[in-house]
Amino acid sequence: MPKASEVKKGTAIEFNSRVLVVKDIVRSVPQGRAGGSLYRMRLYDVVTGSKVDETFKDSDMLKLADLIRRESMFSYIDGEEYVFMDNEDYTPYNLNKEAISEEILFVNEETQGVHVIVIDGAPVGLDLPSSVELVVEETDPSIKGASASARSKPARLSTGLIIQVPEHISTGDRIRINTAEQKFMGRAEK
């Protein structure tokens, strides 16, 4: 069982007889208090999809939920659900659009390394690779001679995600994005 300080985003834990997936963690160190940090976590109930906010001390022991990660590919959209296909046995996993609204901005039909999180046979979320490659669909014209470390500009990617990119990037470029920080990493290898 890990301590609260060791838990990362995307981890599934059992808490108050519910299975919750960690979506966001904010660490704070209260002033004038002996002891460690506090970890405020935004969690999602995998059964109901409801948001839960909990605060843990860094030394609190959390129980990991029994889950399986299945490598999958995005297949198609069916109404309010995104359908992913298991890479090994072709099992379809339907995930509600709202449950994966943040993650789906990094995924298209070509994205490799996406895992569907399955708990008790039911798909409950996505585990993204550390970086993905997407195409810039719209951005201001590139500036010739702009250095890679110069100012940045917003770019809309093929999935609808908007991130800041260096001025030398232009529409149609394929770029790498860090999924955890939502940051530009560089041009993708051809």
From TrEMBL:
A GO molecular-function descriptor: translation elongation factor activity
A GO CC annotation given for this chain: cytosol
InterPro entries with a match to the protein in the record: Elong-fact-P_C (IPR015365), NA-bd_OB-fold (IPR012340), Rib_uL2_dom2 (IPR014722), Transl_elong_fac_P/YeiP (IPR020599), Transl_elong_KOW-like (IPR013185), Transl_elong_p-like_YeiP (IPR011897), Transl_elong_P/YeiP_cen (IPR001059), Transl_elong_P/YeiP_CS (IPR013852)
The entry's keywords: Elongation factor, Protein biosynthesis
CDD domains membership: S1_EF-P_repeat_1, S1_EF-P_repeat_2
Similarity comment text for this entry: Belongs to the elongation factor P family.
GO biological process terms on file: peptide biosynthetic process
Domain Elongation factor P C-terminal per the UniProt entry, residue ranges: 132-187
Translation elongation factor P/YeiP central domain span: 69-124
Organism of provenance: Pseudoalteromonas porphyrae
Lineage: superkingdom: Bacteria
Protein name: Elongation factor P-like protein
SMART domains reported for this sequence: EFP (SM01185), Elong-fact-P_C (SM00841)
